[in-house]
């Protein structure tokens, strides 16, 4: 244990320089960002992740943005355990009919101001599962969405660029 | 050849000529009941159980999976004899058959719905299963006794995990019963596959459970190749195994870290997370996708290993060989961590055996079964590897099996890189020869355990019906047993050490 900890002190961290914020995401956010609300948030975002029907591929990459390479927390963005503590809902999956109410209630439990980020091609429009009897559609079919981060699944870098755009929109308006 | 329990059940019947590679027999209710008795007596194990419009299919194996067969009860008119009446592991599958295919298992011990929460809209002419009244209340099992209280958890959980509902009944801190309710991420994948062209169905198969995308794509491809008698080039088999072992290492690393993190030992998560990320980056360099989605297709693989890819994987293996032993030592020498994992969440070997529980969970409870060994598939017949097993069945044992399997997978990758055959990486899928349809079955060892895929192809090569069965079907019920008598606070630890798939189970 000591060896491992000592080595961490003398070795350079694996954490990488942040990628630039996603331009397309900034454009999409321009419409939904309320300057006054973002001023209140400062440069800090609390995220509640909701799997509304995903294959769990997106969850793997959302986990990855917490690892030492991407280190999401250095930007003031962190995952929280309750929607009551959240500014942002990060929603994956096509929304299944069986999860629709769960997502609606999680959204309702999130205090305003709040944003919804839909992750993945399935979160965008249901993706490969669109048209199934069990699928209600993309995230925007159930709750209003402020930002889409597409991909199957989006890479950690794509996720980071999208979330940084959300944070930058806050800094910019301030 | 030695007479197996399966031969005793099928008793000289003629197998369907269009089902490969293992035989499928049309049986009567008498034989069906014999199968229930054999399952009850532990002479054979349940590999899969799925319905069609007027037919129920049952995949059986001998206890070590050296022999496999499928029994079909045909022309079922709404009702068929329940297996679960004698063999409870079949219960959730019979509930599913009832709601998906409208076929009722007579005498079944549990007639509650399972995946159908009464929320699916009924479009005219849709492929949707029969509706249920959405106001019908789901009844959890009754609990009686002094000082009991219930804790409902989910479907939305506190972590970044999939949705499901857990109903705990506790006496003080001690869990006296856990009842799971799943189905929240049911996407109707079997419905989407019916009628789909092969390429589309393969993409769907790769998204049954995203963390096992390689294993599912492989299982689907092998089922299609069995049905069409397609002979895959040797190099493709080896590249598939390379991807499958990378996927196993990535997931085991993630799980080892996450289990320790649930015991508040975050440093293991951080270091395992770094190694896992290295695996995914090597996969992206080599195969162009971090999770290697859509790289295995019926007929072969879609991308070859080039010089850069080989160098990336060699560097990865060297790195893990250097770093991983330190982490293993850290796990082994941290008594506060062991205090949480040893003797926690014990799954008794007899239950693992009864449920034919595969993967790490089964092997940590003495069930030494690995689909790469039996029934086996190429190239593993030409590779040397051990199937690690333990008998303790606790969280600690499940961690150690994962550790040993990471080491085995590294050795497999080294063998694959040094002996990778030259040649083509794909071939055309054969036509559905002569017949109106062709059926194929496959069993593939994913990181969670054996994945079964059964497929029936139409004469035009599209999918008529496909049934993917996740290993979690036979693991989720055992989590309910393993948590009993543990404290509520140890549930995340137990759950993570199982790491069952919600999406793979809910379909």
UniProtKB/TrEMBL annotation, chain A:
Alphabetical list of SUPFAM superfamilies matching this protein:
HydA/Nqo6-like
Name the keywords, alphabetized. Answer: 4Fe-4S, Cell membrane, Iron, Iron-sulfur, Membrane, Metal-binding
Molecular function terms from GO = 4 iron, 4 sulfur cluster binding; metal ion binding
| Pfam families cross-referenced by the UniProt entry | Oxidored_q6
Q: Kindly list the cofactors needed.
A: [4Fe-4S] cluster
- All copies of domain NADH:ubiquinone oxidoreductase-like 20kDa subunit, residue ranges: 55-166
Question: Source organism's superkingdom?
Answer: Bacteria
Q: Which InterPro entries match?
A: Complex_I_20kDa-like (IPR052375), NADH_UbQ_OxRdtase-like_20kDa (IPR006137)
Q: Which family does it belong to?
A: Belongs to the complex I 20 kDa subunit family.
What is this protein's name? Answer: HycG protein
Per the UniProt entry, what species is this protein from, by scientific name? Candidatus Defluviicoccus seviourii
Gene from which the chain derives: hycG
Automatic annotation (TrEMBL), chain B:
Q: Which Pfam families match?
A: Complex1_30kDa, Complex1_49kDa
What sequence ranges are listed for the domain NADH-quinone oxidoreductase subunit D?
275-430
* Family annotation (SUPFAM superfamilies): HydB/Nqo4-like, Nqo5-like
Instruction: State the Gene Ontology terms under molecular function.
Output: NAD binding; NADH dehydrogenase (ubiquinone) activity; oxidoreductase activity, acting on NAD(P)H; quinone binding
Q: Which part of the chain is the NADH:ubiquinone oxidoreductase 30kDa subunit domain?
A: 72-121
Keywords (A to Z) from UniProt: NAD, Oxidoreductase
The record ties this protein, via InterPro entries, to:
ComplexI_49kDa-like, NADH_Q_OxRdtase_suD, NADH_quin_OxRdtase_su_C/D-like, NADH_UbQ_OxRdtase_30kDa_su, NiFe-Hase_large
List the protein's name.
Answer: NADH-ubiquinone oxidoreductase chain 49kDa
User: Source species, please?
Assistant: Candidatus Defluviicoccus seviourii
